[in-house]
């Protein structure tokens, strides 16, 4: 039955039902109006763009799971999303980046869910928040949801950028209640721990002003990261950081049992682990107060995180030596996830610097490809290598936010192709969902 015949039949039905009670003509008027709109614009239910329906990512042993199937991740870092969303003139870049990522078949983006003190601060002072910036984070999460991209959100920085643990220590010191001016007092000072717990609770229970969903109940958030690259160099034994991870991971899970949680580690082996001398980049890496195995074994930590930066970790290695190290580094951690931790291993940052002597873009391509290939081979064998997030992606005209690792992915066709190919071959391992039209079209193109 065509549209016009459908409306004529509906009108006859209404007339039959209503002729005896005086309501016929008003109802026919309403029906006629609806019919005009319907026939002028078509079936609105069909043409209206519906956001992808996302479910929570879970874990089954060494694998991430979505809707009962393994979920292997190809994604990226754009730490700047909240900061840009807070400025009206820069906000369009957030949508542009998330839309571009979705078109590349990328499924997870890692970003900061913190800005402590300073310009565009989310947390202006302990327990005091700027609602304008919180609404900016609401916007980032809502945009990610619209584009079917999940977010891995980091809660605080070990580094000074965007406040980090330095700002927390400064707040306590300025109030005259801090135990020490050392940055590492972030991990053991009771006052600072209270500051941080208050921030965590406020963040996780935040009700998004756009979607109406509390963050802890939003499946568009992939998971939480306790800290970006935690280090506690004042206690190389690792005991101080270990205690902090145990306490804070339990606290997060007491509020939010829906989302996955990780520490945010770089992946260095600690002083008691025999791999410190064979797998760490250099001796300094074993005395930073972190321990990949010990930290990742904590009960409430769902998956292990690892970073890959041979350019920063080595001073005098050749490009070939760095590529060899990357392979050993990744395979070692995947083996740990498989046999020691029984948890997924997620390489949440990797990058290749353009400040290297004799840098060539082709070297960066090869570096990326070596990492993506190892992830694919691990996924194909159903091993613990769960995915990787490149550091970092931008859109055009953002050079002031760039570093020696950042790229606009579509500016170099070969680089773009590596990422889209990875998206498709990982998707094929689990079967491309028939409702994911963007991914279906993308992967059809990669076959040609």
TrEMBL record:
Transmembrane segment boundaries: 21-41
This enzyme's EC code(s): 3.2.1.78
GO cellular component, one term: extracellular region
InterPro entries: GH, Glyco_hydro_5, MAN-like
Residue span, Glycoside hydrolase family domain: 55-393
Gene3D superfamilies from the UniProt entry: Glycosidases (3.20.20.80)
One Pfam family matching this protein: GH5_mannosidase
GO molecular function: mannan endo-1,4-beta-mannosidase activity
Localization annotation: Secreted
Superkingdom of the organism of origin: Eukaryota
Catalytic activity: Random hydrolysis of (1->4)-beta-D-mannosidic linkages in mannans, galactomannans and glucomannans
GO biological process, one term: polysaccharide catabolic process
Main location: secreted
Keywords on record: Glycosidase, Hydrolase, Membrane, Secreted, Transmembrane, Transmembrane helix
PANTHER family with a match to the protein in the record: MANNAN ENDO-1,4-BETA-MANNOSIDASE 2, PTHR31451
Family statement drawn from the similarity comment of this UniProt entry: Belongs to the glycosyl hydrolase 5 (cellulase A) family.
Name of the protein: mannan endo-1,4-beta-mannosidase
């Amino acid at each position: 039955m065509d549209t016009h015949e459908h409306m004529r039949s509906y009108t006859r039905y209404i007339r039959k039902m209503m002729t005896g009670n005086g309501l016929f003509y008003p109802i026919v008027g309403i029906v006629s109006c609806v019919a005009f709109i319907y026939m002028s614009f078509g079936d609105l239910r069909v043409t209206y763009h519906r956001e992808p329906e996302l479910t929570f990512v879970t874990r089954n042993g060494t694998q991430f799971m979505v809707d009962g199937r393994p979920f292997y991740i190809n994604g990226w870092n754009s730490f700047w999303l909240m900061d840009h969303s807070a400025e009206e003139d820069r906000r369009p870049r957030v949508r542009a980046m998330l839309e571009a990522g979705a078109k590349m078949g990328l499924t997870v983006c890692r970003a900061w869910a913190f800005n402590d003190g300073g310009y565009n601060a989310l947390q202006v002072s302990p327990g005091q928040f700027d609602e304008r910036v919180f609404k900016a984070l609401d916007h980032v999460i809502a945009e990610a949801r619209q584009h079917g991209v999940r977010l891995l959100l980091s809660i605080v920085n070990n580094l000074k950028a965007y406040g980090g643990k330095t700002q927390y220590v400064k707040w306590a010191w300025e109030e005259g209640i801090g135990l020490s001016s050392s940055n590492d007092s972030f991990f053991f000072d009771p006052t600072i721990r209270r500051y941080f717990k208050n921030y965590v609770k406020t963040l996780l229970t935040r009700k998004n002003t756009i979607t109406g969903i509390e963050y802890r109940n939003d499946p568009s958030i992939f998971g939480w990261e306790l800290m970006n690259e935690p280090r506690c160099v004042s206690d190389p034994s690792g005991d101080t950081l270990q205690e902090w991870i145990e306490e804070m991971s339990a606290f997060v899970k007491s509020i939010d049992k829906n989302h996955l949680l990780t520490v945010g580690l770089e992946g260095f082996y600690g002083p008691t682990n025999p791999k410190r001398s064979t797998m760490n980049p250099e001796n300094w890496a074993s005395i930073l107060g972190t321990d990949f195995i010990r930290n990742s074994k904590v009960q409430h930590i769902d998956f292990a995180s690892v970073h890959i930066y041979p350019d920063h970790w080595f001073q005098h290695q050749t490009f070939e030596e760095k590529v060899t190290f990357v392979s050993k580094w990744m395979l070692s951690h995947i083996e740990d996830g498989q046999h020691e931790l029984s948890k997924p291993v997620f390489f949440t940052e990797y990058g290749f610097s353009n400040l290297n002597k004799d840098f060539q873009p082709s070297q960066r391509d090869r570096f990326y490809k070596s990492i993506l290939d190892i992830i694919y081979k691990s996924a194909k064998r159903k091993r613990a290598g769960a995915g990787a997030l490149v550091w970092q992606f931008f859109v055009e005209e953002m050079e002031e936010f760039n570093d020696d690792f950042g790229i606009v992915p579509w500016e170099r066709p070969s680089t773009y192709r590596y990422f889209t190919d990875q998206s498709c071959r990982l998707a094929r391992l689990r079967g491309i969902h028939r409702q994911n039209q963007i991914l279906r079209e993308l992967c059809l193109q990669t076959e040609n």
